Amino acid sequence: MTLDMLNVMLAVSEEGMIEEMLLALLASPQLAVFFEKFPRLKNIIAADIPRWREAVRARLKEVNIPPDLDAEVQTYQQAQLLSTSQFIVQLPQILGKLHQLQSPFAAQAQKLVDDNATFTPALHTLFLQRWRLSLVVQATSLNQQLLDEERDQLLSEVQERMTLSGQLDPVLAENDTAAGRLWDMSAGELKRGDYQLIVRYGDFLNQQPELLQLAEQLGAFKGSEIRAEERCADGNLPQPGTRAGNGA
Is Transferase among the key words of this record (predicted)? Predict the structure, then answer.
């Protein structure tokens, strides 16, 4: 059984825990330092949150719960189907199974039985309710453990990418589009050496205003060419070299 399946069965709200984890990540002191130094990166990083959220959800669907907990959940599900009289008959086996699995509920279950000479329907209901509560606590603990691991991994990834992207902040000046694109590329396409090379080129261009202006003009021209080609591919404009009205 996966952790996600357990959450569904016990009605554990994993969405709330995921949101809390992401908020804690963004509020971490490590990132706060970067945001203060490079404020533009905060908005760029915020655009990554939906991707992170989906990645965590997928992780919950992949991770299997521990075998002992899986066995306890199956025992609990079977016990839910029993009438009170059937439950009383099965109670010694149920208690034995809980002790065998070293369930956190084992001691409480034993006490409920020992403290009540007669096992009534009300006690049967109470037993199952407390058992379910124990399972919810275990599920919540597993969720929290997994989310802590995901948060630490994301924090490490974001710190590395922000370190690389931060090196380019002076080079990119007010170009938020370029900053966003380079942030996306920092996920894997660009290596540290690539960044250092871009930084060196940027420093050189900043010292040569005429070359910088020419580079910006060439970049704008190239961008317009790409947009024109995209429109042609969509059939909105004729391809270069074709004649309007030529039906051949």
Answer: yes
pLDDT per position in the chain (248 positions), as tens?
999 999 999 999 889 999 999 888 888 887 887 777 777 777 777 888 898 899 999 999 999 999 999 999 999 999 999 999 999 999 999 999 999 999 999 999 999 999 998 999 999 999 999 999 999 999 999 999 999 999 998 888 877 776 665 555 554 444 444 444 444 444 444 444 444 544 454 554 455 555 445 545 555 544 555 555 555 555 554 444 444 444 44
Residue 2 three-state SS: strand
Nearest residue to 121 via CA among 72, 86, 73, 75: 86
What's the residue count for the chain?
248
CB atoms within 10 A of CB 175: 15
